[in-house]
Each structure stands twice: as structure tokens, then as C-alpha cells.
Amino acid sequence: MESDLYAGWLPDPFYYIFHLIAWMAPVVGLQLAIGWKIFLPNLRAILWPPFWVGTYLIFTDVIAVHFGIWHFDPTLILSGTVDASSSPIAHFLLQPLGVPLEEWIFFYLTALLCSQSFVLFLPERYRHSGSKAG
């Protein structure tokens, strides 16, 4: 017996992206609302680590998918809605390098959350203040 957790209002291919937005957007938004004055002078410390960490994790995911270590259920990701033979560009945009777009977003957002949290909880003396002493 199959249970439909979303009672039909959420199509299957939107499950992963829905959960990414539902769980991460409020946390990112709260961090930005609270810490934007801290984040602005510390942008390099906030943006570079997620770029490198996210890219590394995507690279390892591409390898794992390629070698069949794991796979993604095409019925639960956005690229599952597009037939690769009829729309290869759309399929590539939704599943670049064989890894679903949702997975890319997950890796970069998770790394961004860690980076923002680190800067927020870093003692003030170790952060850039944004004011130039002259």
C-alpha cells in the first residue's frame, strides 16, 4: 500500500527541491536577517569556502554516480520530468554532469550555511569589522 504524504498537491519530481527550499531557505534567511552587517565585510570568508567545498563534493558525486555507487530516483527529481532525447539542453541544465540540479544546490547551500554559521559564531576580534582604521 502506497501512502501519499503530500495528498497529491506536490508532484513527485518536486519532492527534493521542495525539501531543500522548505528546510534551508528559512535558516539562510534568518542568518542573513541577523548577520548581514557581519557578512558584508567578511564576504570572502563566507563565499570562497562554500565554492571550493561544494565543488569538491559535486566532483565526488559525479564520480560516484558514474561508477554506480549510488543513483537518484528519476521520479523524485526535476530532470525526471524531461526526456533527454527530446530536450537534451533542458536535461543537461536540470542534471549537469549526471548529477541532479537539486544535489548541486544542496552541496552549495549546505557549505554556505556552515560558512555563514562559522563567521557568525567567530569571536568578534577575528572578524573583519568593515571600518577602515586610518
Structural account:
The chain has helices spanning 15-39, 43-66, 88-94, 101-121. It has 134 residues and is mostly helical. The protein has a domain at 48-121. Helix 1 (15-39) packs parallel to helix 4 and helix 2 (43-66) packs antiparallel against helix 4. The model has no long low-confidence stretch (mean pLDDT 86).
Q: Based on DSSP secondary structure assignment, what is the total number of beta strands?
A: 0
Helix content: 55-70%
Query: Mean pLDDT across all residues, rounded?
Result: 86
Strand percentage lies at under 5%
Major beta sheet summary: none
The N- to C-terminal Cα distance equals 71 Å
Number of helices: 4
Label the overall shape: elongated
Overall structural class, as computed from helix and strand content, comes to mainly alpha
Instruction: Point out poorly predicted stretches.
Output: none
Order of helices and strands: HHHH
- Give Rg in angstroms: 19 Å
Keywords: Membrane, Transmembrane, Transmembrane helix
Protein name: Lycopene cyclase domain-containing protein
Transmembrane segments: 14-39, 51-72, 104-122
